[in-house]
Amino acid sequence: MKYFSLLTMLMLGQQVFASKAPVPVYKDKKALVESRVEDLLKRMTLDEKILQLNQQTVGDNNNPNNNGYQKPTFPAGIGSLIYFSSDPAFRNTVQKRAMEETRLGIPILFGYDVIHGFRTVYPISLAQGCSFNPELVREACTVAAKETKLSGIDWTFSPMIDVARDPRWGRVSEGYGEDPYTNGVFGVASVKGYQGKNLSDQYSIAACLKHYIGYSMSEGGRDYHYSEVSPQTLWDTFMVPYEAGVKAGAATLMSGFNDISGVPASANPYTLTEVLKNRWKHDGFVVSDWGSVEQLMAQGVAKDRKEAGLKAFMSGVEMDMVDDIYGQNLKQLIAEKKVPVAKINDAVRRILRVKFRLGLFDNPYTTIVDQRYLQPESKAVAEKLATESMVLLKNKDHALPLTGNVKQIALIGPLAKDQEDMLGNWAAHGDAKDAETVLDGFEKEFAGKAKINYAKGSEIDGTDESNFADAVAAAQKSDVIVVCLGEKKGWSGENTSRSNISLPAIQEKLVAELKKTGKPIIVVLANGRPLELVRLEPMANAIVEMWQPGVVGGSALASIISGRVNPSGKLDITFPLTTGQIPTYYDMRQSARPNSGKYQDISTEPLYWFGHGLSYTDFAYGAINLSAPKIHKNQKLVATVEVANTGGVAGKETALWYISSHASSISRPMKELKHFEKKEIAAGAKYVYKFEIDPMRDLSFPDADGKRHLESGDFVIMAGNQKIKFELLD
Ligand code: BGC
């Protein structure tokens, strides 16, 4: 009896004690994030703090560029994991260890590369930019975020906003093209799509702006190589989208592999600390790129792993992706007084802040649902984006759309019945089996209207011409030839540089054979970079750039070919005439002798400039109107332009507004895109596009240290084929 009452008393006592024990502030859902961060930080040992600064991997690595770094095990209290699985239950098991088997129960942050969709793969980013429809991209990223979150992942290494001017560089496919402003607008749209209104919302994931910064300047387009970026170009071109993305609240950034004019991007105190943290006040964290801390040795700025860790950490890289240098060296570096504890605290604080903002402490586990992928509404967004991303490059004598009198269509080419390559590179957990082929799309679209005669014709690469005859036969019995050409998905993306951006000769030969039939030829391109089309273009009556369109690309393309949808994409990157023209981009600076210094062997003009894209209707731009011919620096100027749809069908037109100034204290690009708006205009209708010019935002320029200068003088504003001068007064 005594025994029982003693036990009862003890239990009661424990209960009384337990109910009185205060909940630590960091576990209190109602406390402010900053108070929770500080409370937790105070409780952490140095070892626990250092663990937060490390990222390892779990699951089967599906990236061939990144093998050989993984460790078989990881500590339960690791800061972050790259999660190669898509199984939410497995994540929950791993998370449970962190929550229940570590002293403080700090949740792990699970990251992964979700670049253009998780399972509902939508077009590659380079294509998305051509839609000039940021709202649609935001919606697509929202779809991706939901599928990602439901698969156990809290953080995507996206968007990539590296302004890219060299199509030999394979990663040109991962960003939004050659223009700084466009990369900024779409980077912001992605951040908003992924992160939602609030990072702690049920289906929000954290975004990561990458690869900070200048990575796309790798010399000769050779990936991972040295990048020569002058301070002026850094600010004019590369900082623009990053500043926009940081302002939009991107939770994290990734430091690049590249060496920026002698100071590698992953050991660069100027970009990582002075600009990002001190000036832009970014309070999230920076993760290195895969192994980019260790690679400081290869780049010749660190003699060993320890020095590499010291340089990266002190420059402002808070999390070490996979190479375990921070894990192995930071404690020693602190003991040697090379790394101050305050700097460790600052780094941990930044990582914890993101975890708290994501709500991971309060909801560490993933909810398991039955249907998370390829939902009809998700596919609808993917299809709409694919449709708006496609660009009608050429349409001689209205070869397109294929209307009623076309009864037989020869659908030919190595990409016509292809699923794998429709997805493009970095297709996350995309499955080729989900992807519609072009043939699927055509059969659906033209059912009961035209017969589709399919023949492969050739492989994407190689020399085998044995299937040419079948293709020619299919062409001969058809009214028109649609030939689908392009690249394998693995030909663009990381580590996929090309010295020549032509298509393989076999594809050009196939078209030459088909041309002999005398039938009209519609070339459809599926590729991840601008191509050299100098030999193909003259053989084609029409060319549609379909890019790598994702799971519903077949339907999207077919709807354009049939004319059910009017194409509305415009190029976000210039197509040079030949590879030798690289670099060619629209915002170059003026030559000293604009009419001279041309190539002797070819035209200096690219084949298709940034902004090029045709429609099945015609848009006529009226004169640009200004609210005043002159304004002072503290005033706003409103420019408007009326655009009439003078053709027979409705169409979407994007007005691209450019500014140029011809006499500044430093030379400026010939023109710079400052605003765009896409709008559907009914046949015969008009729409007035408007651009409200804020002088400091739109007319100023940065110096080599990012300070903005607004100088009075003459400016020209352009839209469509119209331009007008105005004056900025002091
Ligand atoms: C790429 C990054 C990617 C990372 C993680 C690296 O090789 O450069 O873009 O986010 O791997 O997969």
TrEMBL record:
Residues covered by the Fibronectin type III-like domain: 653-723
What EC class does the entry list? hydrolase
InterPro entries from the entry?
Cellulose_Degrad_GH3, Fn3-like, GH, Glyco_hydro_3_AS, Glyco_hydro_3_C, Glyco_hydro_3_C_sf, Glyco_hydro_3_N, Glyco_hydro_3_N_sf
Q: Which domain of life is it from?
A: Bacteria
Q: Which residues cross the membrane?
A: none
Q: Does the keyword Hydrolase apply?
A: yes
Write out the GO MF terms. Answer: beta-glucosidase activity
Which UniProt keywords are listed?
Answer: Glycosidase, Hydrolase, Signal
Q: What is its EC number?
A: 3.2.1.21
Q: Which GO terms describe its biological process?
A: glucan catabolic process
Q: Which reaction does it catalyse?
A: Hydrolysis of terminal, non-reducing beta-D-glucosyl residues with release of beta-D-glucose
Q: So what family is this one in?
A: Belongs to the glycosyl hydrolase 3 family.
Name of this chain's protein: beta-glucosidase
Taxon lineage: Bacteria, Pseudomonadati, Bacteroidota, Sphingobacteriia, Sphingobacteriales
